[in-house]
Design goal:
mainly alpha, single chain, about 75% helix
C-alpha cells in the first residue's frame, strides 16, 4: 500500500500560490492600523494638521513593516526559483514561515501603539527572527533533500552560500538594530529601515560590484 506521506505536497506551484496570497493579505492589513482622525474632534485646520502629523509614528512603522514583508517575499521567491521539488515536510515548513508572515500585522500594530517601549521593539524583532529562521530551515531542508535545480555542484554551492549568508548577515543587523532601542527606540527603527532599504535596492553590494 502506497504511503500517503510519500505522495503529499509535491507541487511547488501550490506553495508559491498560497505564499503570494498570504503576503498580499499581510501587506494590505498593515495599513489598516492607521486610522483616519475622527471628524468630531476636529474643528480647525490647525487641529486637522496636528491630528495628521500625530500619525507619523504609525506611518513610520507601516513603512518599516511593508519593507519587511517585501524583503522576505523576495527572499522566499529567490529560494523557490531554484527549488523544483517538494514534499510534505517542505510544505509544512513553508506554512510555518507563512504563519510568521501573518503575525506581522499584529507585531506592527503592537509596535505602533507602544513605539516608545523597548519590549514592543523586542516583540517586533522576534517576529523578524522567526521569519529568518524558518526561511533558513526551508532552504536547508530543500538542499538536504536535493530539491534544488542547479546545473552543477559548484553553482549549487555558490547559490546556497549566497542565500544562507544573506540570511545570517541580515539577522545579525536586525539584532543590532533591535539592541539600539536601549539608546533610542526611533534610532532602532531608523537603523532597521536603513538595513532594509540597502537590501531592497542593493546599495552597498551594488557599489562593491562596481569596484
Amino acid at each position: 500500500m502506497l504511503n500517503y506521506n510519500k505522495i503529499a505536497g509535491k507541487n511547488t506551484q501550490r506553495i508559491e500560490a498560497i505564499s503570494d496570497g498570504v503576503f498580499a493579505v499581510a501587506m494590505t492589513l498593515l495599513v489598516l492600523d492607521i486610522k483616519v482622525p475622527a471628524t468630531e474632534s476636529i474643528q480647525t485646520e490647525t487641529e486637522l494638521a496636528h491630528s495628521f502629523f500625530a500619525l507619523m509614528p504609525k506611518f513610520l512603522v507601516y513603512f518599516l513593516s511593508f519593507m519587511t514583508v517585501g524583503i522576505f517575499w523576495t527572499g522566499q521567491s529567490t529560494q523557490f526559483k531554484y527549488i523544483e521539488k517538494s514534499d510534505r515536510n517542505l510544505n509544512w515548513i513553508t506554512l510555518l514561515f507563512l504563519l510568521c508572515v501573518s503575525l506581522l500585522p499584529f507585531s506592527t500594530a503592537f509596535l505602533s501603539e507602544h513605539i516608545n517601549y523597548k519590549f514592543a521593539i523586542a516583540v517586533y524583532w522576534f517576529n523578524i527572527l522567526l521569519l529568518g529562521l524558518t526561511l533558513y530551515i526551508n532552504w536547508q531542508y530543500a538542499v538536504k533533500r536535493n530539491f534544488i535545480a542547479v546545473e552543477n555542484s559548484s553553482g549549487k554551492e555558490a547559490i546556497s552560500s549566497a542565500i544562507t549568508q544573506r540570511i545570517f548577515i541580515a539577522q545579525s543587523l536586525y539584532l543590532l538594530g533591535a539592541l539600539l532601542c536601549f539608546v533610542n527606540p526611533f534610532l532602532s527603527i531608523a537603523f532597521i529601515i536603513a538595513v532594509q532599504i540597502n537590501y531592497a535596492f542593493g546599495i552597498i553590494s551594488g557599489r562593491q560590484s562596481k569596484k
